[in-house]
Amino acid sequence: MGRASNKLYQTLLLVLVLTSFSHGQGVSGLEMIEIPAATFSMGELESEYQGPPGSYDATVHTVNLSRYWISTTEITNQQYIEFLNAAYTDGLIEVRVETANGPDKGHTLVFGSDSAPEEYKGVAMITLDGTRVMKDHDDDDGDGNSFTGVIEPENPLNLCYIEFNESGNPGEKFYLQDPATDFDWVELTNYYNYTSTPNELDTTTLLNDYDNWPELSDFPNNMPTVEEVKNWPATFIRWYGAKAFTMYYNLDLPTEAQWEYAASGGEQYKFATADGTVHGDGTSANWNFLHEEPAKHHVYDVEINSANPFGIYNIAGNVWEWCEDWYKADFYADATDPVCTDATSNKKVRRGGSWNYHETTLKSAARAEDERFKGNDHFGFRVVSNTEITSLGENNTNPVDFKLNQNYPNPFNPSTTISYTLTSESFVTVKVINMLGEEVATLVNDFNQAGEHKVNFNATGLTSGIYFYIIKAGEFSDVKKMTILK
Predict the structure, then answer these.
(1) How many Å apart are CA 160 and CA 182, to the nearest integer?
(2) What domains does the chain contain, in order, with CATH numbers?
(3) Residue 81 in 3-state DSSP?
(4) Which residues pair with 444 in a beta bridge?
């Protein structure tokens, strides 16, 4: 490959991983997909509702949406660390141990500072020393309280990997911890059962489940790496912490309507997966597909499993995702760009289910709610933009009517389809390159008529990993990422 071509590819890769917004601050690696204006049927029939009896809250109604942009993935640990460092440098947040009585007492939390916007001033955003949820999952004592009786521990890897070092270099005080070196796993797997009094520990017998987990059985060889954990979704995020992130980058949390339309793939999918169905082996979404009490696994890479028709990953499962709306059971009504501003419930909506929840929470129409101050090992978020965004790089003046779509399926083995749209006849090249910028395939190298085009890419003979496909058509150029998973 020549120097000129290599420079083009490097530029396009830069465009792929850097996105900036109108106020000039960017989020590394954030990819946003445009969702065109649409009218769709929101909710589900009561006859199809699978929630608790008497709790049906998803009345079918018609919603008109203006176009918007939504992140293809949940916000990652690495992206949230970058936000925390930037916000700390700007004096918008502070770190302290909570001393007030309550469930947060003794925990290290990130708070909005006195200089922060009113939306998160003085409130906790994320629990830095958050660990796995420990409770009586099977209610063996029959009292209906999860915090009395014998505990069934979750996987110890369900913890917050973000740490703070006040003496660290400016802009690097928050950092990602290494699972293999930065934790005392024996200490983390020590626990006590509860007494018959809620949240009171029976300290007569110290228990330990270190030997119960395969990740610890050949320590440190079975542990996830730092590079892997970077791309896990940020967890222990309270609504305030998600809101603070969006405000800093001039973004928004999705409304319920935006979230549900994106989750349905524009195809009215019943389940918010790549094809609208749920597989029983965990390949359609990261959920409790083994129906264990408790679930034995944890969050995974934000791009695990295939993207839906919009190119969105894991909008079902992995972590619950905070929305902008206040929860109101009977809020649903025909509307244009609706968002519930009635705060009577004092709870915000969360959507999508998570790694430890059951199948029904993966529905596009399934709703849930929680107080803004709650956030544990299965709470995260993704973001939207309601105004047009621009990309860093040489191709930010591309004709907007030319378009390169996300390949489908993705990840794939061995083949996938790449589609693109041309508004005029053009000489088109579509090439595939690896992470080193080396060309591995030329899929198109010819004149194409205006219109929609599709090309198949067969990856037989290539190794698993991340690849990029690049289009050039006249003055238009674009690049997208895809994953071969064998």
Answers:
(1) 12
(2) 398-484 (2.60.40.1930)
(3) helix
(4) 430
Report which of 238, 31, 49 is spatially closest to residue 128, judged by C-alpha positions.
238
Amino acid code (one letter) for 83? F
In tens, the pLDDT along 332-375 reads 889 999 999 999 999 999 999 999 999 999 999 999 999 999 99
Compute the distance between CA of residue 378 and CA of residue 360 in angstroms, rounded to an integer. 16
**Rg of the chain over CA atoms, in angstroms?**
23
Which single residue is written with the structure tokens 């918008």? 92
**pTM value surpassing 0.85:** no
Structure tokens given for 330: 């009977």
- Residues forming beta bridges with residue 33, ordered by sequence position: 70
Q: Can you list the positions of beta strands (E) in 309-363?
A: 320-326, 335-336, 348-351
Q: Please tell me the distance from the alpha carbon of residue 420 to that of residue 450, in angstroms, as a whole number.
A: 10
Cα–Cα distance for residue pair 391/26, rounded to 1 Å = 10
User: Three-state SS for 368?
Assistant: strand
The neighbouring-strand residues paired with 271 are 363
In the structure encoding, which two tokens stand for residue 142, read together? 């029959």
Alpha carbon distance 224, 50 (integer Å) = 35
State how far the alpha carbon of 177 is from the alpha carbons of 75, 237, 371, in Å.
Answer: 17, 17, 28
Please write the tens of the pLDDT for every residue from 20-31.
Answer: 333 224 788 899
